[in-house]
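hey so i finally got around to running the thing on that chain from the lab meeting. sorry it took forever, my laptop kept dying and i had to restart like 3 times. anyway pasting the input first so we r on the same page abt which one it is
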Amino acid sequence: MREALWILIGQRVISSNVFTSAAKALVLRNFGASVGSKVVIKPSVKIKFPWKLSIGDNSWIGEAVWIDNIAEVSIGKNVCISQGAYLGTGNHDWSASNFQLILGPISISDGCWICANVTICPNVTMRQGSIATTGSVVSGVCMDNSVYTGNPAYFIRHRKINDGA
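ok and heres what got predicted. didnt touch it at all, straight out
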């Protein structure tokens, strides 16, 4: 019943360009998500199962982001997930004749930036302040305050954070 209501009502609200981010956060909470304060959810966002999602304060979910969370997805505080990013917690075992489903959680720590059109694979951990550049495909662990690029994503440099403007 919960899944049917989510498909009929919740997904439509979340993907809408009519409802505010506050209204979208309220709907997500009502369907079991943990959503912090001042979260921005832009139009055309898709979320598979809100009851397997947590989003920290001041995070941003950009246009056309797809959170395909058949396993847990945890998004920390002050995270930016840019347009067209895909977070997928499921994959198939291509070595099995029946392509058995394999699940793995995704954990995005505080202060991370997932740039536009990035793919985040199952079992990814992005540690505090890490960045995946535009179009990257991330698998494994991204270290603290590090920048990753490419397919598959690889480390390119440490991130220097300036506290002043």
